[in-house]
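Table S4 entry, PADI2 deiminase.
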Amino acid sequence: GPDFGYVHREPLFEAVASLDSFGNVEVSPPVSVAGKEYPLGRILIGSSFPASAGRRMTRLVRDFLYAQRVQAPVELYSDWLAMGNINEFVTFVPTSDKKRFRMLLASPAACYRLFREKQKEGQGEATMFKGKGTQAGTHGDIFPAGWYSGTDTKRVTINKVLSNDILAQQNQYVQRCIDWNRDILKKELGLLEEDIIDLPALFKLDKQGKAIPYFPNMVTMINLARDLGIPKPFGPIADGECCLERRIRALLEPLGLRCCFLEDVASYHGSLGEVRCGTSVQRRPFAFKWWHFTP
């Protein structure tokens, strides 16, 4: 169509991997870092941990992105994830204040804090994963039996999650991985702690030691201006309401955002994705013309 184009890059000798998925390419909002302006934001891509021999985005694509100097890329650590895409732990939402945005990070620590709060309130037997799924129409719970090895999805309570030492150790590791990225993002995007919001999330390690979401990952939301399409987490029901959904609303609605929780377990989450993996949003382009900017 008019004023629309694309670039196709295909490696001749390298095999592509899940880090070449475009959930592994994000762009920050416009930022100013140490006196340097990035009016179109900065490209964010996931990679292996520095000095390790893990998975990386195909060099052909990496080189192409690094050539876009106006949006100078920031390389993050995402190889700890099974899919390895940065949109599994970071996203951005708009605000109307001076900063104009907030960065959202997945946070196992925030989830454990919330669950301990509910346990102290006497809600320890609140059950997760309640609801009817659509897979074959036979499962009473949204997750098929045995979806996570060693997990009885028919009766997962706050008490069971908090007493699971292996799950706790795995999420401590995940939190360290996310905290490493947090420090990089704060430095490379010029952010303060007040610019970051931690969203409750839990992960579980697969047989290869890579992280997969324990419940639908709310960070992988669809951002439609002030409306957010958020994967429905099917968290513990306390006082008749999912405590995860309530916490997300408490964090985001004061910013003028509207939260809509979308069921995506059968369609996407069961294949290690979320609703964002099968949708696209047509964005209004910046009035700012990047070719007028000297990096």
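Helices lie at 59-66, 108-120, 158-162, 165-189, 243-252.
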